[in-house]
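Below is how a single chain appears once it has passed through the pipeline. First comes the sequence as given, then the structure the pipeline wrote out for it. We keep one example in the README because the format questions we get most often are answered faster by looking than by reading.
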Amino acid sequence: MVCGRPPPARPCAGAVPATTPWPFALTPAGRSWLIDLIGWDPAQPRPGRRPLVRGCLDWTERREHLGGLVGAKLCELFLGNGWVVRIGSGRAVRLTATGTAALRDRLGITLD
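Resulting structure:
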């Protein structure tokens, strides 16, 4: 499952833009947030070789966003809750009104 930074983006696996050369790390507060929000503990053993967090370059936007297992889980959450919807058959997504409210209420993020 892949997701992207709305509205519209061509994503790899997540939705958080980078702001520093190596910004991707899961903090204890981030782990608690994931447990509370989706009931998933990133510290649990996981199958496969996918990294927990990593940057993923969006070739269209030329910006990194959150990739890895955490990015994929957040993407599943956003799509599953209808916070983003796919645009056509590609990887681009669009933020919905419900998603705008969820970002504001759960993360304190407001969009213009």
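Residues 68-80 form the longest helix (13 residues).

See the next section for the split statistics.
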